[in-house]
Amino acid sequence: MPHINLLPWREQERQASQQKFLTIIGLIIGVVCLVMYFIGAFYDSLTTGQNIKNNYLKAEISKLDTRIIAINDLNKQKNNLQRRIRLIEELQSNRNLGTQIIDEITRVVPAGVYLTSLERKGNLLKVVGRSESNNRLSQMLRQVEASYLLERPIIQGIVAGEQRSRLLSDFSMHFYVKSFQQIEDSQRGK
Question: Which residue did the predictor score with more confidence, 63 or 152?
Fold first, then answer.
């Protein structure tokens, strides 16, 4: 005789397949959550590593910034010292400048030219005097131009002598004293 199953087997099969489906879905969700956790942990470790590198770089940059500030301070001190040294050298060279100027003026003034006044304002020398002839004044101009200490002679005026001393002409001129650097350069060139 044939067997007839009157039990609700379709419903049991349906429940079994639903149970199987829910188990597979649960496993997939678990695997996905585990994969997401590992991906998140991987990116967190990358972020942490990058933050450590950034903090290290910031610390090194701040060290370099302090070194740069120290170097800039040293450069300022160096420039100040160099300026002071140049000033001391210039003062040292100018210590005897008045004597050198008088000595050089006696060398450039030819015979027949007589100085009545010599005035110095900074690097400008104003000379007033008398001359026997204009040729002697031109000779004086050439000698000032050839001088290692004096430069740019300019005659401001020549006035013929009065009745009692017709032989002598009054003149006024000015010229400049060379700067410390020009004097040094001309002495090195010799």
Answer: 63
